[in-house]
Amino acid sequence: MKQQRLIPLALALVVAGMANSAFAEDPITFGGYLRSGVGSTQGGGGGSQSCFQLPGASSKYRLGNECETYAELALGKNVYTEPDSGAKFTVNSRLAMSARQWQDWEDNTQSYNKNTQSNNDPSTKFALREMYVEAENIGLGDAKLWAGKRFYDRHDVHIIDYYFWDNSGPGAGVENIDFGFAKFAYAYRGNTVDSGNTSTDGLDHTVGVSGHDFRLSGIKTNPGGELTLGLDIRSANRTPNDTANKSTSGYAMNVMHTQGGLLGGFNTLALQYQTGDIAYGYGYPNPNGNTQDKTYRVVDELQWQQGKFGGMAVALWERQKPVSGNGQTWISLGARPTYYFTKHLGAAIELGYDQVTPDNGGAVRKLTKLTTALLVSPDSGFWSRPQLRLFATYAKWNDAAQQAAAAGSALAANGPFDGKTHGMTIGAQVEAWW
């Protein structure tokens, strides 16, 4: 069993090693991301690090609040270049792994969910998150063609790791077509969704959700400001004998303004409207939704850097309106300011507040999380990585949040804090990208 779990990592290492041998003249590019650490729960039942996320919220404030090892290894290679025209074909790939913090060999037969600490997902998971080919300088001006599985023009809020606009996965398309006033991109995208439903024929069925993604970006609005417009149209297709799932269609409209050069950083304001099968999960569609399901979302993100003082702040409002009536409103407000005493040594404070108000008359759920951390990094900028952190996290939540929490999770009455509605963790972590 251990040999089977070694296969994905071994393949990545073999391919990476080729960059120093047979492909030395045209080397493989190597990039990636990682985060990992160790922590402990203070008070209550004690034990390993607990992580705090409000039930109904799609994200959590992540500093001192990530309980897993997560890593991505990205490998790319230019496989063809035409000297005269500059035509280029590039292969890109990305392998990801998420693992529970076991001593050594993570047991893949156990079940674990990194956010709720409940028994939902395997403790160790591998994913081939990208594998695509990109062609450029092929007689279409600056336009590029691509096909395969990829991260497709994702947009997120870093301090909560929330990808509010993410249409990633298998597909094909063209991007960077110059319209003069804007750049145009089109992608045909498809995801296969396993709803877990069983039909009357006794079989589990997967549903294909495909769609058309249209984007106009780089529209100049003011000095340093640009507008991006997006329309995403989706449809679900089930097999004829699948009586357990629906075939729901949907669409999303996105308006995003990015202001560069603001306080040494940027501000992003996004307005979103989503319906049907992508009403709630943009990157993870629900084919069993109703075509009349709706979500409205406003995301405002500010990142600044003034000398040794940097940081990021977010304000988010989301309204979910399903036909079933079990909707909710999610509000999230938070910030992570950082200050460096020297080039390499600094400190951060992250304060985040989440609130979820159910439509069914249930009590309002609330969670406040505060983290202080000492930082060590190559430079004094907010984005400087690798970054080593020594942190202490304190969280407080109300009774409604406790009652809605998954059994055994940090906020639950039978969780690691012995029924209390507050808790603390301490630990160390590293985050890096390259």
Automatic annotation (TrEMBL):
Q: What is this protein called?
A: Maltoporin
Source organism of this protein record: Paludibacterium purpuratum
Signal sequence range: 1-24
Q: Does the keyword Membrane apply?
A: yes
rRNA processing: present as a keyword of the record? no
PANTHER family attached to this UniProt entry = CRYPTIC OUTER MEMBRANE PORIN BGLH-RELATED
Any Gene Ontology CC annotation? pore complex
**Where is this gene product found?**
Cell outer membrane
Q: State a single Gene Ontology molecular function.
A: carbohydrate transmembrane transporter activity
